[in-house]
Amino acid sequence: MEWHIAVNEEYQYVEIATSGVADKRGSLDMAKAIATVLREHKINRALIDHRNIDSVSGGTLEVYHRPEQFPEIGVIRGIKIAEIVKPEHQEFFKFLEVVCVNRGYEFSVFHDQEAALAWLLNS
Fold first, then answer.
1. Would you say domain 2-121 falls under CATH 3.30.750.24?
2. Are strands 106-110 and 13-22 parallel, antiparallel or unpaired?
3. What residues have CB less than 8 Å from 45, skipping those under 6 apart?
4. Average pLDDT, the chain
5. Residues forming a β-bridge with 108
6. How far is CA 3 from CA 11, 16, 44, 82, 119, in A?
């Protein structure tokens, strides 16, 4: 998976645009890069736009255990993450949302940027 990270200084969030195939390794590498940028800029909100990914991979168990790996790569609780996804990837990302929320992360999935930003910027 490829990604581009930009910092929105005005509204204090990090915006990530992804493309390619969302797989475990790419997702964890991206999460590590996001955690680094969040720390460097002292920001705790991220908007991840997955609308340009081609496909997602990973089974139920892999997704279920993904939040357990977050602390190892620097993702801490206390950050707020909004993800924008295509309807065909909804099931995968909604399961990830449930798992993350159950593990104490503030995480929500959306289909459009306006709704995602409204949720993200509402402190």
1. yes
2. unpaired
3. 12, 13, 14, 79, 80, 81, 82, 120, 121
4. 93
5. 82
6. 21, 6, 19, 16, 22
> What is the DSSP secondary-structure string of 65-105?
HHHHHHHHHT--TT-EEEEE--GGGHHHHHHHHHHHHHTT-
Residue type, 53: I
Contact, 99 vs 67, CB < 8 A? Answer: yes
Q: Is the overall model pTM greater than 0.85, yes or no?
A: yes
CB 10 within 8 A of CB 117: no
Which pLDDT tens digit goes with each residue over 35-63?
A: 999 999 999 999 999 999 999 988 888 88
Q: Indicate the domain borders of the chain.
A: 2-121
pLDDT in tens, 71-122: 888 888 889 999 999 999 999 999 999 999 999 999 999 999 999 999 999 9
